[in-house]
Amino acid sequence: MNKLGNPIFTGAAAPSLGRIFAVQVLILSIAAFNGATAFAEEWVVNRVSGVVYFVAPGVQAFRVKKGMVFEKGYTMGTRAGGRALIVRGKETISVGPNTTFALSKQLSKGRKTTLLQRKGNLTIDVQKRARPHFSVETPFLAAVVKGTRFGVSVSSRQAQVSVERGLVAVEDFASGERVDLGAGQSASSEPGRKAGLSVGGATRPKTRPGKKRAPLFNAQTGPLSGASNNSGKSAGSNSNSGSGNNNAGGKGNGSSSSSNAGGNGNGNSSNSNAGGNGNGNGNSGNSNAGGNGNGNANGKNK
């Protein structure tokens, strides 16, 4: 014991300061590695310009800032002139103006990523792996990749996939057609004009038959994440009709038949689905609403 009452270690029992330091460094290194590994699994906003926002079920839309994590189940939207770059390690998602897409919570597990792209333009650069780990779902087609750089463009009537390098497997929902795209090749789907895939490139890729399937979401209702193309509130809803009962997820006014809504939306006519923020009016028919951004119509609602 020294004069202060602290033990004095001598001989073999005395711990080495170097050993203590090494143990502390090892502990800190393990903690840092675990933190870095967890962070490496996340998509993070690396760059943002113009009006870009996040929205999710039960979450009001808010402006995106550099360094934010793109949480699973969230939807990102850009206005005219808005752009964003999202990164995960060396992988990138470049988001163009007037684009709306969600990071699927149900289908994105671990390093596997599924985007639900409602509209706009995405350019994606992902690393090559043994198994497909990245996919983009649109209202008209799906693109599944192992590792490549490709672009996806979606409008209200069609979707197109263009490949810069690597290999992308594309399937058309309406016809079931499938095609593997290489560098310089493209495929598009416009079911309202033509059944099946339209392909192009210096060397035309060959399509093959497959099973039809329903898309995960449609152009009217947007991604199943429940987020809408809305830069304001994400939970309120206003609904008006002619006469009767009215129920809405937020505020509701009206007196007609029956009207139900679960989000914000605009809609007129017999069947109505919309993805904005505002008031829904309708006169007859059936209306479906789900998530944020669906309209209401007078008559029977589901």
From TrEMBL:
FecR protein domain location? 76-168
Where do the segments described as Disordered lie? 180-302
For bias type Basic residues, the affected ranges are: 205-214
Gly residues bias locations: 275-296
Query: InterPro entries, alphabetically?
Result: FecR
Q: What Pfam families does UniProt report for this protein, alphabetically?
A: FecR
Q: What ranges does the record list as Low complexity composition bias? A: 225-246, 254-274
Stated name of the protein: FecR domain-containing protein
What organism does the UniProt record list as the source?
A: Roseibium aggregatum
Lineage of origin: Bacteria, Pseudomonadati, Pseudomonadota, Alphaproteobacteria, Hyphomicrobiales
